[in-house]
């Protein structure tokens, strides 16, 4: 029996060791590939300038390869992914020899996200094998935080976390010897306080920012799609005290597809124009092209203290309105806020104040 137990223990330990080694080979943590995190974060602006110089030199000289070559006689050079998209090229700046760890490569990426903003990634200690290749998957960490704004004063902002905001939850890209593979984005979605704020019971006109955290995987940056569930209540700045509850919030910034649940209300199509979103090439065929915030269903609770004047035999008196508003297909984008409302309650159900058949609304520039 002891021999059997010993054999079982050996088998279990062997399987565990094999699994652990496979995981380590599959993906090496980005922090392990940096020479000194503190030094890098202190000099991040200088490193960004260096990356810009490396990218410009490779682009000017056209020195691109299809795989990482640690024994290349020419540095720097770029590695273009299999789809040929040079926006996702790796840039191998140099290879140094460490007496203990062997050949280590400095590899960068610069991914443009808008005309004046790019995401900068790096790892300066990527191990090179004896054959001159890199074996397995590696992570390049985002160097510094980057913001992507949607709308102007009343939109929302996506903040992608880099090394400058913390070591454990940075955005990173995954690469292998053939180049870019995927991107894992970590950060925060923050609505402008002139549009959406955090709901606080009994506190009308809250100005506390409404922020949601995210961590998502995507095949590339253009495929950015965020889905938030179990979110906390919020309120619209123009409706203080009205508690908004939703099951899911979807942020769609994908160029390739829309959310499966996405439905464009007819009133939205009828009222949106090219001039309203500042896009002369805008088409009302929104299949796969629409970008913004989408909420399929939302319940808005009317504040308990909300009253209205009502006629009675004794004159005018204040009557408390008990009820809620259900909003369907709520869209927040560059055009404003759009949705279909259905209101129910002791006043809304009155035959003279009936709104439960559904009314569309468009609040522009919110």
Protein model, in words:
The structure is a single chain. The protein has helices at 2-26, 37-42, 44-61, 266-271, and strands at 27-28, 64-65, 77-79, 90-98, 102-114, 117-127, 137-142, 146-150, 156-160, 172-176, 179-191, 196-198, 211-218, 225-229, 234-236, 243-246, 248-252, 292-301, 307-312, 315-320, 323-333, 336-345, 359-364. It is α+β, with helices and mostly antiparallel strands and 366 residues long. The protein is elongated, with a radius of gyration of 27 Å. The protein starts with a helix and ends with a strand.
**What fraction of residues sit in β-strands?**
35-45%
What is the rounded Rg?
27 Å
Unreliable stretches? 1-28, 310-319, 348-366
> How many H/I helices?
4
Oligomer: single chain
Shape: elongated
Overall residue-averaged pLDDT value: 77
Order of helices and strands: HEHHEEEEEEEEEEEEEEEEHEEEEEE
Structural class assignment: alpha+beta
Percent helix among the residues?
A: 10-25%
Task: Map the helices and strands.
Layout: H1 2-26, E1 27-28, H2 37-42, H3 44-61, E2 64-65, E3 77-79, E4 90-98, E5 102-114, E6 117-127, E7 137-142, E8 146-150, E9 156-160, E10 172-176, E11 179-191, E12 196-198, E13 211-218, E14 225-229, E15 234-236, E16 243-246, E17 248-252, H4 266-271, E18 292-301, E19 307-312, E20 315-320, E21 323-333, E22 336-345, E23 359-364
Parallel strand pairs: 1-7, 2-3
Antiparallel strand pairs: 3-4, 4-5, 5-6, 6-7, 7-10, 8-9, 9-11, 10-11, 11-13, 12-15, 14-17, 16-18, 17-18, 18-21, 19-20, 21-22, 22-23
């Amino acid at each position: 029996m002891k021999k059997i137990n010993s054999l079982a223990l050996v088998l279990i330990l062997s399987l565990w060791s094999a699994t652990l080694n496979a995981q380590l080979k599959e993906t090496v943590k980005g922090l392990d590939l940096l020479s000194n995190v503190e030094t890098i974060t202190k000099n991040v602006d200088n490193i960004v300038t260096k990356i810009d110089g490396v990218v410009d030199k490779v682009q000017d000289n056209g020195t691109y390869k299809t795989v990482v070559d640690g024994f290349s006689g020419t540095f720097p050079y770029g590695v273009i992914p299999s789809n040929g998209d040079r926006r996702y090229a790796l840039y191998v700046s140099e290879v140094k020899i460490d007496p203990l760890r062997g050949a280590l490569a400095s590899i960068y990426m610069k991914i443009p996200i808008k005309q004046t903003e790019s995401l900068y990634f790096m790892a300066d200690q990527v191990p090179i094998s004896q054959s001159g290749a890199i074996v397995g998957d590696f992570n390049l960490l985002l160097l510094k935080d980057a913001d992507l704004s949607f709308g102007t004063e009343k939109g929302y902002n996506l903040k992608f976390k880099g090394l400058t905001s913390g070591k454990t939850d940075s955005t990173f890209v995954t690469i292998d010897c053939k180049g870019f593979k995927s991107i894992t984005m970590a950060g925060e979605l923050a609505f402008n306080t002139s549009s959406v704020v955090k709901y606080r019971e009994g506190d009308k006109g809250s100005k506390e920012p409404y922020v949601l955290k995210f961590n998502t995987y995507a095949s590339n940056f253009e495929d950015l799609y965020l889905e938030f569930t179990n979110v906390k209540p919020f309120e619209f700045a123009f409706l203080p005290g009205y508690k908004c509850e939703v099951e899911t919030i979807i942020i769609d910034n994908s160029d390739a597809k829309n959310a499966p649940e996405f439905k464009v209300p007819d009133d939205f199509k009828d009222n949106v124009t090219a001039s309203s979103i500042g896009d002369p090439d805008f088409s009302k065929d929104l299949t796969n092209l629409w970008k913004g915030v989408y909420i399929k269903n939302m319940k808005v609770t009317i504040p308990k203290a909300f009253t209205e004047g009502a006629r009675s035999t004794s004159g005018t008196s204040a009557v408390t309105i008990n009820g809620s508003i259900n909003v369907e297909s709520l869209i927040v984008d560059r055009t404003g806020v759009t949705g279909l409302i259905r209101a129910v309650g002791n006043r809304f159900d009155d035959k003279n104040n009936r709104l439960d058949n559904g009314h569309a609304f468009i609040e522009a520039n919110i």
